[in-house]
Every structure is written in structure tokens, then in C-alpha cells.
Amino acid sequence: MSGRKEEEGSVSLEALRMKMAEFAKERNWDRFHSPRNLLLALVGEVGELSEIFQWKGEVPKGLPEWEEDEKKHLGEELSDVLLYLVRLSDICGIDLSKAALRKLELNAIKYPVINSNNNHSP
Length: 122
Ligand SMILES: Nc1ccn([C@H]2C[C@H](O)[C@@H](COP(=O)(O)OP(=O)(O)OP(=O)(O)O)O2)c(=O)n1
Description:
5 helices; metal-binding
């Protein structure tokens, strides 16, 4: 499923879900993509993502001092996390788009806007 939006760098979770399903099917990897395996793969990728930040101390937003290669690597690890998350959701029969929108609503109820000048975290 490749369209204009994807060329512009915008993609839906549904498009990613379908691409991951196709990727696994083409390689006969459905047998490996069980919920537990996918969860462990996801956690492994979160570890790889963490390694990029490890020992750097706090870094400013936008990562202005990072080399392009380092940012490219960061994008790859973030993508691995997203792709395994999308695949895990699919294999578990969870509609991630719907679930995430519902969770945003629940968050807004749990944490109402009281004062926009409130600097305290929850
Ligand atoms: N059984 C698998 C193996 C890989 N992938 C896909 C999902 C991830 O986006 C990516 C992960 O590939 P690797 O396991 O090779 O991990 P990395 O790309 O992070 O490589 P490395 O761990 O060598 O840095 O490939 C998958 O769907 N199912």
C-alpha cells in the first residue's frame, strides 16, 4: 500500500500493520511472530534504543549536537520499536489506532486541564 501520503512521509498505523503482515507472510515468518516472541523482540529494540542515549547524560531537544549518522540510527531504532508494537497489537487482535485514541481520551479525563501555568508534573 504505497500512496501519495507515504511519499510525503506520512503513514497510517493501518498501512504499517498491513506492511508488517505482508513482510512476515512473504518470509513464512508468521510462525515466529507469536505474541510472546514479538513482545521480547519489542523489548530488545527498546534496549537498542536506550543504548543510543546511554551515558550521554541529558541531551537538548532536537538533538542539535548529534551527527547525522547518529540521528539516522536513532530513527531506525525508533522504527523497529514502532513496527514490533504494531505487529504485536495486530497479532493480539488489538486495533492500535482505536485503542490509542481511547487512551488519549481517558488520559484527558484523568488529568484535566486546570491551569496551563501549572508547571508541576502529575
Ligand atoms: N523475525 C523478525 C526479524 C526482524 N523483523 C523486522 C522488524 C524490525 O523492524 C527489524 C528487526 O531486525 P533485526 O532483528 O535485524 O534488528 P536490527 O535491525 O535492530 O539489527 P541489529 O540488531 O543487528 O542492530 O526487522 C521482523 O519483523 N521479524
